[in-house]
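Task card 7
Instruction: Convert sequence to structure tokens.
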Amino acid sequence: MSDTPATSLAERLAARFGDTLTISTVRNETTAELAAADLIAVATALRDEPAFRFGELIDLCGVDYLGYGQTEWDTNTAAGEGFSRGVEGQAMGRFDWAGRPRADNEPRRFASVIHLLSIEHNHRLRLRVFCADDSMPVVPSLTLVWPGVNWFEREAFDLYGIIYDGHPDLRRILTDYGFVGHPFRKDFPLIGNVEVRYDPEQKRVIYEPVSIVPRVLVPRTIRDDADLMQAKAEAADDWQRN
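Output:
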């Protein structure tokens, strides 16, 4: 393995880890995909070995690839003038159960993505670990490698339901302890399942069926604006005269 500065990070990773990593570089950003069983060994090597020295874990998040590559945007039947949403909500927030997003483009649904920084070598690296079981997504916890990942893993557990095996205190961090479900999963209704309020008569917090009217909150499709087009034309005329 060459230690010359010209050796790219991807080349060094491939030389060191071989088939353990699947490496890609897009727009000068390097991503290494690996199996959950190899995560701890690879992460420790990336942290400790002089060729890498990824001493900082700057982010960890969950990803739900359900419906990846699919879209509900409609640009063909949307209004041809003015403003239109280009999409229509369905049933409980976005879709009914029969029309829910499906994992057609990705064989595995959940992944944990880790972003690393090497201050010594001025390199950034993204690790992606897919969960083998969609019904019980599990990946090893990195708290023994980078202790600061503790709250990141709790957040991914809370929002996506990914279980980090070996985490010392894996519990919800953003939603209430009695919350049902994981709100960042793509099959979770946008309006939620229940709503919470304080009942002054019972003097406690109570859960009730959600009463919000389903609606879609997505950016509107902006069409050509006549006033803006006129302003551009006048500015062009002024520039030609001057």
